[in-house]
Fold this sequence. Notes:
Elements lengths: L2 H7 L2 E2 L6 E2 L1 E5 L10 E6 H6 L1 H10 L3 H7 L12 E5 L5 E7 L3 E4 L2 E5 L8 E5 L3 H17 L6 E4 L9 E4 L5 E5 L2 H24 L12 E4 L4 H20 L1 H4 L5 H7 L22 E3 L4 H4 L5 E8 L2 E8 L3 E9 L8 E5 L6 E4 L1 H7 L9
The site of zinc ion has 8 residues, from helix 2.
Amino acid sequence: xxxxxxxxxxxxxxxxxxxxxxxxxxxxxxxxxxxxxxxxxxxxxxxxxxxxxxxxxxxxxxxxxxxxxxxxxxxxxxxxxxxxxxxxxxxxxxxxxxxxxxxxxxxxxxxxxxxxxxxxxxxxxxxxxxxxxxxxxxxxxxxxxxxxxxxxxxxxxxxxxxxxxxxxxxxxxxxxxxxxxxxxxxxxxxxxxxxxxxxxxxxxxxxxxxxxxxxxxxxxxxxxxxxxxxxxxxxxxxxxxxxxxxxxxxxxxxxxxxxxxxxxxxxxxxxxxxxxxxxxxxxxxxxxxxxxxxxxxxxxxxxxxxxxxxxxxxxxxxxxxxxxxxxxxxxxxxxxxxxxxxxxxxxxxxxxxxxxxxxxxxxxxxxxxx
Length: 370
Ligand SMILES: [Zn+2]
């Protein structure tokens, strides 16, 4: 075999850009939602471009709370995105993360509680995990040592929630400083640098107080991005159609508008009617009152691929509760094999359901899907 032939064999016809490129692993249903069905029909470049919409769907869409609420304690860590804060019983705001089964964990943080002059500010630690606390301390120590502490991002937020500036370790093992203003953040850095050697000696000699977050009020900030969320949902339908029908099928020109929409190249908004409303491109994806869950119970995600002349459509149901109708393309087809798939929420299974099984599992036989 010639060298050029070998090279050609390693290439795939990408279902998004239509080019022959090196394949990558694209999850049909996002890995972050617990999907485990992989297709290699997407090139690396196109796949990389999807990380933002996939992350937004999983972490800050309307069902991100369902995702975190449903994640089993022993399954992969599912995090709620956005800025999450908790009021401690003493009335202090603390940075937290919300993970599987809505478990609230206090992020490792060092705070500065200002005392009236001339008393120096009091330093306090908080966190749920002693190991992570040590990571925070060594990272701060390193950054103070090499002067990089001045480059740590200052998150300026709500003055009440950001009272008592603090340095926080978040889940990507990065640091940020929360403060009510940029100036307060900078002042915090100066004070922390000044007293650090003292703190460092202190933490070496004593046990750090870390504790699980007791129940309390948590303020969650979720950003809803309907276009990004809908594009990520359309991608599930399109990916699955490609798995069932092949790359050539979905690369037909009738699917081009959908493809460009998913890739973010063409999003059409209705002109605003003089209001501040957020508009959303509704050409392809619409919320749908009935989904597979309405007639067929499922613990996970389900996707139905169907055809109602002339539209090839999908019903995508996530967390057995949120259903979207995805209109993929108009085609004149003599027949179309309905496909029903079920996906786990914990990266364990994905399977095609026999229509007989769908029929046996159905609970309400009268719902018509149009
Ligand atoms: Zn591509």
